[in-house]
Amino acid sequence: MQDLSNRSPFSNERFGSVNRAFIVTGEDKTIPPEFQPWEIENTGVTIVKEIEDADHMAMISKPHALCQYLLDIAK
Question: Which residue spans adopt a coiled-coil conformation according to this UniProt entry (predicted)?
Fold first, then answer.
């Protein structure tokens, strides 16, 4: 059996090849909007969408808008 305990779970070949999206949430109190650009700039995000009146849990506060964006991103 191969010992995977010392192997990094992330690599450019695997994780690095996946397009990343970020949904900016305008009413987020956990990661306030002024800090969200840092997340975008430092995590390799290539797709940015915004839901101005969503909070940190966009799937609860704005489920229809989030679902539409996720469908758009998946295309």
Answer: none
- Let me know if residue 41 belongs to a domain: yes
pTM of the model as a whole: 0.76
Is 30 within the bounds of a domain?
A: yes
What residues have CB less than 8 Å from 36, skipping those under 6 apart? 22, 24, 25, 28
Domain that holds residue 23: 17-74
* φ and ψ of 46, to 5 deg: -115, -15
DSSP state of 14: T
21-72 pLDDT per residue, tens: 999 999 999 999 999 999 999 988 999 999 999 999 999 999 999 999 999 9
The residue type found at 25 is T
Name residue 20's beta-bridge partners: 45
